[in-house]
Amino acid sequence: MDSDVNPEPLLQIEELRVEFPTASGTVEAVSGVSFAVAANQTVAVVGESGSGKSVTALAVLRLLDGGRISGGRVLWDGRDLAELDGRGMRRIRGDEIAMIFQDPMTSLDPLYSVGHQVVEAIRLHRRISKRAARERAVELLDQVGIPDARSRIDAYPHQLSGGQRQRVMIAMALACSPRLLIADEPTTALDVTIEAQVLEVLRTVQREYSTALLLVTHDMGVVAETADWVVVFYAGQVVEQGPTAQVLGDPRHPYSAALLAAVPTPTTDKSLPLAAIPGAVPSLHETPTGCRFHPRCPHAWDECASTVPELYELSGGRTSRCLLQRDARGAAAVVAVGRESA
Q1: What element of type H or E holds 313?
Q2: What is the domain extent for residue 164?
Q3: Does residue 308 lie in a domain region?
Q4: Cβ within 8 Å of residue 240, ≥6 positions away
Q5: Could you give phi then psi for residue 74, rounded to 5 degrees?
Q6: Does 127 map to a domain?
Q7: For 44-53, 163-172, 184-193, 305-314, which range has the lowest pLDDT when averaged over its residues?
Q8: Neighbours of 221 (CB within 10 A)
Q9: CB-based contacts of 283: which residues, under 8 Å, 6+ apart?
Q10: What is the pLDDT of residues 81-116, one digit of tens each?
Q11: DSSP state, 93?
């Protein structure tokens, strides 16, 4: 795939807005987010905790606990998932779009064997016998690297290691050969060796099934290894997106540059403190005016506090929400492709 061009989308998220009721009033966790995922493509969504990454992923499958989609569209094969009823969404979940959750220990039911849970995922969408579903479950567990899958199928979650539980979650997600796999921090709490193995499983699965992958992560190393396209979130907005090599090699938003600067490399001087972004992601109740990143931005000037930056389209399909891009466009006439209220 040519990663410099975003191909025809399989999933299209357009101006998505998600809000949650709180004791202090309704807050907007996702504000006008737009991006797409194409068949057989890996799109990485990155940003600090609280930036809206996981909420966006959960919104695709309408798994928002207490929250609701308040605006925009989530298009899947021409259907707006935000408008489907409960039955319609149940047909989509697990069959066409599947999700690997962040913590397999809390996502797997401790009262049932892992085999029972994989079989249940298969039979929910496929009219096959328990025996056939069990054989399929053994195949899946073997495919994701569970050793001696036929005997381990009757194990309970607490009898497996963290890496093996994550592999079971991947097997469940693959039960019905979905066209899109959403992985929400799939390597959290795993050591480096197991992380590499889990990522290799995902890459192998993607090659064999031609599955699209939406990867939610904060690990820029994982992004560099796996993603074709990167979407950078900050405070509920997309602040930059584009081909992985371009975004990582030449970030066009100060937040993207700051994230990359905070990643240690083999050449990092160990005698110096690691780079860090000052401050913290703003509270949903106290979103800054103007550019949401301006209180933490080393390049901010007075206008950044009062002017809401547009999402500017750069070359190669890249976009950046920064006034630096507006002022640098010159004769190239960078085109604003979206506007959001602060």
Answers
A1: strand 312-313
A2: 107-177
A3: no
A4: 230, 231, 232, 247, 251, 252, 253, 255, 256, 318, 319, 320, 321, 322
A5: -120, 95
A6: yes
A7: 184-193
A8: 14
A9: none
A10: 989 988 889 889 888 999 988 776 778 899 999 999
A11: B
Under the banding of pLDDT at 50, 70 and 90, the label for residue 4 is: low
User: CA–CA separation, 43 vs 55, rounded Å?
Assistant: 16
The three-class DSSP label of residue 20 is strand
Residue 211 placed within a domain? no
pLDDT in tens, 119-156: 998 888 888 899 999 999 998 898 888 889 999 999 99
**How many domains does the chain divide into?**
1
Residue 262: how many other CB atoms lie within 10 Å: 13
Residue whose entry in the numeric block shows the structure tokens 């396209």: 229
What is the pLDDT of the chain when averaged over all its residues? 86
Short-list 5, 42, 61, CA closest to 216 = 42
Integer CA distances (angstroms), 248 to 223, 271, 300, in order: 9, 25, 21
Give the integer Cα–Cα distance in Å for 57 and 34. Answer: 12
State the virtual CA torsion across 246, 249, 254, 255 in degrees, nearest 10.
Answer: 80
Answer whether 72's CB lies under 8 Å from 83's CB.
Answer: no
Query: Which position has the token pair 């039911």?
Result: 109
Q: Is residue 247 part of a domain?
A: no
Radius of gyration of the chain (CA): 21
Q: Please state, in angstroms and rounded to a whole number, the distance separating the CA atoms of residues 330 and 273.
A: 38
With beta carbons less than 8 A apart as the criterion, state whether 190 and 198 touch: yes
